[in-house]
Design goal:
The structure holds two protein chains of two kinds. Chain A has 20 helices and two strands. By secondary structure, chain A is mainly alpha-helical. Chain B has helices at 3-23, 28-52, 75-101, 107-126, 130-148, 154-186, 203-216, 228-231, 237-264, 266-271, 276-294, 299-320, 323-354, 365-368, 370-384, 390-404, 408-434, 450-482; strands at 58-64, 67-71. Classes of the chains: A mainly alpha, B mainly alpha.
């Protein structure tokens, strides 16, 4: 009985948890509550992944109103995978935040902050769970608005500016998305994504449909920080509290890319996309530009948080590269990288946050020699760094391998060259950090790790990186199944 | 103990050794015993792998379906592992003497990285496929970086940065694409005698792919990716001796020989023209490096350039792709290792005993350090290729291979470079023994500390012994030639 509503519960649970959280007293109770909810959702997502693996697709009509008029929750392999990812990240970051946010948030504000985190989580889960396009918009805005508030919590005044910029650009993006949706509704009369997919082929060559596509891509591109619409990201990630940065870096852009994939392949469908002149090449060019731009800019930064943020822009490029290949192998590789990037960026930001907890801020000059006094913490950072570079036995290698093979399959040599250049650049900007961490003397007196409350979640995520790296077959199979299902819809 | 057990031990022992060094860091004598014990245990393990014979495979991990990290012994790799692990013991003894005499700091880090580097070398030697090879190749680069940067001063850091930049740049920029491309062409990266590219790569593809490998394996120091070698001379001499005369550079040329046998295949390489431009490049490297060596005044830099030249002998042999050439390559890997390590040992001994580093300072030093300089002379003879040293045997085989496959260019290179080698080595020997010490010769000194002298004496003797055991070595390598191909 309980489980037959699992598809909705996975969104309803965190949603209902939000007001309860806001009312809880003190600091520990809201944090514990948020972590508990995250773990419950993780359990649900694992169960749902299993169910979808067997059934292929799960549908749930809210309030038993039948689609396409009623809102339908539709879970396929891709959504289940992304849901699992979101829940995993939340399960790790919320306990981490419980300790990490102590410095950034006063006691009387703790409850609303954790409520905001839960709201962000709800929004993200909702986006992935739903099968209705307008529902996507609603949850997108829920997650974005809570995101803006959370970014503003950063210690410096610049956090407010960063949050405001994020708000403006995010709202512009959401507006584009909404207008695009509106145009689609006007053309087809439906908002259910399956129904849209069925009706769009008939109208796809109209200027209205093309405009809708463009607006949706633009809007989601802003949300996903695809170059050159990435301006909000570096400041937002660098200025927000480490726990928030970790959570958002691992989830927000990923979900936006998920929506992009869903709309491109699931709603419009591959056969319509290839008729749009310049779309495929355009996306590939943007992907390559993002990879190289992000990596180049990261090389120039002296604040590790900004290095990681700019690196995220490059990694979004990698994911987009996979998607823009418009092949099952490419989309699968993109999905794999979506998953793995969340793992590696989450680890990196959490490890950085642990270091910041000890030394105050994330500037390179403050981190000198930390490798000697915080070996375990810096060790987890190294795992994340290796994964980012793509060293075998880490998650990053698995997805990069598939990306390379997918590109070779299609003979996209210039994309391969771009990936190579970006990889070399990533070695360079990460090496700068490693050199500072290990090869400089430290001014700190004695060896003292970050507190266990920070270290344990970080280690768990770092181990997840290694687990996927050592045994990448399950993820590869899941991603290939997801890509297959997604691209098959367009027929 | 099965073969797989021994293979596992080949990696486990150096790793445990490194941990042991870190644990006993505060007790120098204990730490050095751990290093020595690890070296002996590893050597015994490698011997067992060699004796076990047959084939076997130990799978470390399977990151992706169909893509494994695995170790599997084959004759060339076993030879390389024997040389590296055997010479490691000698180098450890030498290092004890050197590091103590110079009161070096960070010795724990030194011995720990040393152990990891040897472990990585074992991984390279026993790799069963391209991916495994690549992983251990990179671990080798990363674990030797702290060794090169050991002194920690600006010069050391700059040299180490060059080292890292060139080796990582070539491996990620050239070698990795080559590996991926091979995977895409052949469907897998597994090593198979006779190659896996037969019929799957045409002329231009093969030439480009081979080029990516030749330049991507930066450790083979083919010009123009050779600059890391002289840059790495800022390292303490035990590092230069083992790693840059034996483990690191040998890993580079070993990989190229292995590629010619197990990825491209001798038939494939010798029948097409894919190897031709790279053969010329290697030949150019030999001569150019010898010319540069001629102009060096710093002993270690001279040895560095000499190494670059000698390495390209092996590269040429690998690219000639005939069974005789491959045998010659294997033998030269052994001969050069023994001789070069001796030369570096002596250079370090001179530095420790007298503080001298430049050729001009070495007048008459043979009087004060007769054993060391005698060893130097013997090793120099091996480098030039004169009997009764092992270098003579391997060079002779190289000449034979060149003649029998009609490679006039290789023949010319060999002749010219032999003359050049003599031109820069013999004057040193002459200076040492037949010149009188100048008035400003510095302090009174004798030989270096006994561990160092013992080490260099051992390796010099090895240079002689290898001549005697050359046939046995060739027997070891023969199975590789069985299905190797024509010529």
């Amino acid at each position: 009985m309980f489980f037959s509503h699992a598809q909705v519960l996975i969104v309803a649970l965190p949603l209902l948890a939000v007001p309860i959280c806001a009312l809880l007293p003190g600091r520990k109770l809201p944090a514990a509550w948020a972590s508990l909810v995250a773990w419950l959702v993780l359990g649900l997502s694992v169960w749902l992944l299993d169910e979808v693996g067997a059934a292929g697709e799960l549908r749930y009509s809210l309030g038993s109103w039948a689609p396409p008029w009623g809102i339908e929750y539709r879970l396929d392999r891709l959504s289940a995978l992304v849901q699992l990812l979101l829940a995993l990240i939340a399960s790790v970051v919320f306990p981490y935040a419980a300790r990490s946010l102590n410095d950034d948030v006063e006691e009387h504000r703790a409850a609303p902050v954790y409520a905001a985190l839960l709201l962000l989580f709800t929004g993200l889960m909702g986006i992935v769970a739903t099968g209705d396009a307008f529902n996507v918009f609603v949850f997108l805005e829920i997650s974005s608005l809570s995101g803006y508030a959370l970014v503003a919590l950063g210690r410096r005044r610049r956090a407010l500016v960063a949050a405001f910029r994020y708000l403006v650009m995010g709202t512009v993006g959401a507006t584009f998305f909404l207008i695009g949706l509106g145009l689609l509704y006007a053309l087809t009369g439906t908002l259910n994504m399956d129904d849209l997919a069925a009706r769009i082929p008939a109208v796809s060559s109209t200027p209205t449909a093309r405009t809708a596509l463009l607006l949706i891509v633009l809007g989601l591109g802003l949300k996903a920080a695809i170059f050159p619409l990435h301006q909000w990201l570096p400041e937002a990630y660098a200025e927000s509290p480490p726990a928030v940065a970790a959570f958002m870096a691992a989830t927000a852009t990923k979900v936006a890319l998920y929506v992009l994939a869903r709309f491109l392949f699931g709603v419009f469908g591959i056969w319509q996309l290839v008729t749009v002149p310049g779309l495929e090449v355009g996306l590939q060019v943007l992907a390559a530009a993002a990879m190289i731009y992000g990596s180049l800019m990261a090389l120039r930064e002296n604040h590790v948080g900004r290095v990681l943020a700019l690196s995220s822009i490059a990694q979004v490029g990698y994911i987009l590269l996979g998607l823009s290949l418009f092949s099952v192998a490419g989309v699968a590789a993109g999905v794999m990288h979506l998953f793995n990037h969340a793992l590696m960026k989450g680890t990196l930001f959490m490890a950085l946050g642990a270091m910041i907890y000890r030394v105050g801020d994330g500037r390179l000059s403050r981190l000198e020699g930390l490798g000697h006094v915080m070996p375990w913490t810096v060790g987890t950072f190294m795992v994340g760094a290796f994964s980012l570079i793509g060293v075998p036995l880490t998650a990053g290698f698995v997805s990069k391998w598939y990306l390379v093979l997918a590109a070779i399959d299609l003979g996209a040599w210039w994309l391969l060259a771009a990936m190579l250049i970006a990889s070399i650049l990533s070695v360079m900007y990460l090496w700068r950090i490693v050199e500072v961490l290990y090869l400089r003397p430290t001014s700190l007196p004695r060896r003292e790790e970050a507190p266990a409350a920070l270290l344990v979640p970080t280690t768990v995520l770092a181990l997840a990186n290694l687990a996927v790296g050592v045994h990448g077959a399950p993820l590869a199979t899941l991603a290939l199944g997801a890509a297959d299902a997604l691209l098959g819809v367009g027929r | 103990m099965t073969l797989t057990d021994w293979l596992m031990l080949m990696l486990a022992i150096p790793l445990l050794g490194a941990l042991g060094v870190l644990a006993t860091g505060r007790y120098p004598k204990l730490r050095e015993s751990v290093t020595l014990a690890t070296g002996l245990a590893l050597f015994v393990t490698v011997i067992n792998v060699a004796l076990a014979g047959g084939s076997g495979r130990w799978v470390l991990a399977e990151p992706l379906p169909g893509l494994q990290l695995a170790l599997s012994p084959e004759p060339l790799g076993v030879l390389f592992a024997l040389i590296a692990s055997g010479l490691w013991i000698v180098t450890s003894v030498y290092a004890f003497g050197y590091m103590r005499a110079k009161h070096e700091a960070h010795q724990t880090r030194f011995y720990a990285c040393f152990a990891i580097a040897i472990g990585a070398t074992m991984g390279v030697a026993m790799a069963a496929n391209l991916l495994t090879l690549f992983v251990f190749y990179e671990i080798l680069t990363l674990s030797t970086y702290p060794l090169v940067a050991h002194h920690g001063d600006d010069k050391a850091r700059a040299g180490a940065r060059t080292y890292l930049r060139i080796l990582l740049g070539t491996s990620i920029g050239l070698l990795l694409p080559a590996i991926v491309w091979t995977h895409q062409l052949a469907g897998s990266g597994e090593f198979r005698l006779g190659g896996i590219l037969q019929g799957r790569a045409d002329g231009l593809t093969a030439t480009l792919l081979l080029g990516l490998f030749v330049l991507g394996v930066g450790k083979a120091a083919v010009m123009p990716v050779h600059r890391w070698l002289p840059a790495a001379m800022v390292a303490p001499t035990p590092v230069s001796a083992l790693l840059h005369a034996v483990a690191v550079v040998k890993a580079g040329v070993f990989i190229l020989v292995k590629l010619s046998l197990y990825v491209f295949g001798l038939d494939f390489l010798s029948s097409g023209a894919a190897a031709v431009p790279w053969l010329y490049l290697a030949g150019f490297t030999v001569v150019a490096a010898s010319l540069v060596a001629l102009r060096q005044q710093n002993l270690k830099r001279l040895l560095a350039y000499s190494t670059i030249g000698q390495l390209s002998y092996v590269v040429m042999a690998a690219l000639m792709a005939t069974p005789t050439a491959s045998l010659a390559a294997g033998l030269h890997i052994a001969a050069h290792a023994a001789a070069k390590i001796t030369l570096f040992f002596v250079a370090g001994a001179i530095y420790v005993a007298s503080g001298k580093t430049e050729l001009g300072q070495l007048d008459g030093i043979g009087r004060r350090m007769p054993v060391s300089m005698a060893a130097f002379a013997l090793a120099a003879l091996s480098m030039i290729g004169l009997p009764p040293t092992a270098g003579f045997v391997s060079k002779w085989m190289l000449l034979q291979a060149a003649v029998s496959s009609g490679q006039g260019f290789v023949l010319a290179v060999l002749v010219v470079s032999t003359a050049l080698n003599a031109a820069y080595f013999l004057p040193i020997v002459h200076r040492a023994f037949f010149r009188v010490e100048g008035a400003s010769h510095g302090r009174e000194h004798g030989e270096a500390p006994w561990p160092m002298v013992m080490a260099l004496g051992l390796t010099a003797t090895l240079t002689l012994l290898l001549t005697v055991f050359a046939n046995d070595l060739l027997h070891l390598l023969e199975p590789v030639m069985e299905s190797g191909g024509a010529g």
